[in-house]
Design goal:
With about 230 residues, the protein is α+β, with helices and mostly antiparallel strands. Helix content is about 30%, strand content about 35%. Strands 1, 2, 3, 4, 7, 10, 11, 12, 13 and 14 form a ten-stranded mixed β-sheet that branches. The longest helix is centred in the first third of the chain and has 16 residues, at about 20-35.
């Protein structure tokens, strides 16, 4: 019954490319309001994904929005790719390449040495193109206005980091990390520790706490579920 579903549910969505997390929340909220013929319903997400990232987005509905902080606290697992030798201001493909760096000195052995330095507790500075707030303003709004953005580092933990250099200078990876870890910053820092540069070119979240991507549905599938469910 969709009425009971709307009172308190947690659903798993496979966020599509170029959608913001808010786009997904807004779409689910709009469909529920239309189906139930109501003006207001609580819908939120437990952990933002960038527009250029895909994968697991945990959506909380109704009374389950009270669980958002609890659900956000779990370990996150991502897969993806970063490109060595090039950088962008946003650390991903949201902005144009602005720097090129040498890669000829990078060997599999050096990549492994650098990979090992990330395991455990780390200090990480978020990307300037992020939703972090500085005196009430989003960092990305300040950055897009052309002003200098100064962000403080955060404590993060990298539980594991697997690297695949088979398609060098593209590097495939799978990382298990704590809440608050920016994979764009991880890619950028990896490039710097190789005395080069790097840009995140692909990102997919496959796990958030106990929630798994393989248990998710697409936005379209959830829309169809809502529309076709009995009241």
């Amino acid at each position: 019954m969709i009425t009971e579903f709307s009172k308190g549910s947690t659903i798993l969505v496979d966020k599509p490319l170029d959608w913001t997390s808010f786009d997904v929340v807004n779409k689910i909220r709009w469909c529920l309001k239309k189906k139930l013929n109501i003006k207001k319903i609580k819908v939120g997400h437990a952990g933002t994904l960038d527009p250029l990232a895909t994968g697991l987005l945990v959506i909380c509905i109704g009374a389950h929005t009270k669980r958002i902080n609890e659900l956000m606290a779990g370990v996150k697992v991502y897969t993806g790719k970063f490109l060595l030798g090039k950088t962008t201001p946003s650390y991903d493909l949201e902005t144009e390449f602005d720097g090129e760096f040498p890669t000829a000195h990078i060997t599999d052995s050096l990549i492994e040495q650098v990979r090992a330095t990330f395991i455990g507790e780390n200090q990480q500075i978020p990307p300037v193109f992020s939703a972090k707030k500085i005196n009430g303003q989003r960092a990305y709004d300040i950055a897009r206005s052309g002003k200098v953005v100064a962000l403080e580092s955060n404590d993060i933990t990298i539980n594991s980091l697997a690297i695949d250099p088979a398609k060098f200078p593209e590097i495939g990876f799978e990382v298990s990390c704590s809440k608050g870890t920016y994979i764009r910053s991880l890619a950028s820092d990896f490039g710097k520790r190789l005395d080069s540069g790097a840009t995140l070119i692909e990102l997919r979240r496959i796990r958030s706490g106990e929630q798994l991507l393989e248990e998710s549905k697409s936005v379209l599938e959830w829309i169809e579920f809502i529309q076709n469910s009995p009241l």
